[in-house]
Amino acid sequence: MKRVWFWILLLFTHSMFGQSLSMNIMAPERIYSGTDFIVNVNINKGNVDGFGRLLIKIPSGFTPFEKVSQNGKFEFDGEQIKIVWLNLPSEKGFTVSFGVKAAPNMEGYQVFRGEMSIGTENGSYRAEARPHIVTVEKTDNIATGDEVKIEYSYIKEKGVTAIRQKPYLDDNNIAVVNILVSKGQLSGFGKIEETIPPGYIAEAKVSNSAIFVFNKSNRKVKYLWMNMPAVNQFVVSYILKPEEGRLENIPFIITGEFMYAEGSTSKTKEIIERNIELEKLLSE
Question: Which of 193, 46, 172, 197 is nearest to 109 (CA)?
Answer without folding.
Answer: 197
